[in-house]
Predict the 3D structure of the following.
Amino acid sequence: MLNYTCLNPISKVGLDLFTGSYVKTERTEEADAILVRSAAMHDMELPENLKAVARAGAGVNNIPLEKCAEKGIVVFNTPGANANGVKELVLAGLLLSSRDIIGGVNWVQSERQNEDIAKLAEKEKKKFAGCELKGKKLGIIGLGAIGVLVANAAVNLDMDVYGYDPYISVDAAWKLSRNIKHINDVKEIYRDCDYITIHVPLLESTKKMINKEAIECMKDSVVILNFARDLLVDEDAVVTALKTGKVKRYVTDFPNHTTAGAKGTIVIPHLGASTEESEDNCAKMAVEEVMDYLENGNIRNSVNYPNCDMGVCTAAGRIAINHRNIKNMISQFTALFGEADMNIANMVNKSRGDYAYSLFDLESPITDEILERVAGIEGVLKTRRIK
């Protein structure tokens, strides 16, 4: 039996995918796998038995990736599972920022006791008038799962769409509308676009990429939308730009003391992926990733180990090895199997930064002795008998 635990509520639709071979436990120290959404794990004591952590969502800032990698624990996320939910909220953000819908609704609430509200509205509505999105220039920074959906939807709104992503995948490129203009220099988006939305992961290289210098390059009265991560934007610089009118609106899904209530901001309480469908999709993908890893040794959508897939094992045995990405590891493994008179039927080795992962299908059953000998090789972090 395999044990899993949930650090946050995880959709039942996903948990129902677990077969009878899995048991839910409340004791983290017993878990083979952890499912998590936003719970902070950096100060957690990671149990020796833990093999996988699956984040039901895209961001993994709450998970100690390096610490997990050092212990041979594979961390998964679920890219694209909540993309449609976020896309729809970005579209809502575009509409809310182009016309003062919120101001108008609040005005109606303030006048709800006025018997002449209908007549008064005809006089007051000009205060909340705005512009249409059609024909406006939208710059999208990051063309991953969400950015592609936003780009295509904006094209259907008759916006003039510019996309910037120097690392765009082939799959994403195929999904993009041919009407989207590909930009090689992000400064072109800053200079030319009326609306700018950011959809990149939070890395050291992207932290506060929307800063004072970037804002100075932008058009006057630009609208900035941030539904990715709050730290991608220097929000102190944005608030200053809102006061001067350089930025017309800042729409963000990440409330904090800096932005909440600041003039010109539309602050949403982190609702991007908060739909039933997104939560179900993330849970299902997370569970499927965990099951494939624990049962077959396959890695799909890991953020700290390389992706690796050998399907279902049809040989006599399969061993999975999490190890450091250093020289002579494969030769040591193969030499050990050769000494034990074990023939390799199939194998794969992949690396990612300082860490690597190897799967070996063998024509002989894998014994406890073999597991111990492999685990004893310097640089090996975790070994598992898959079959």
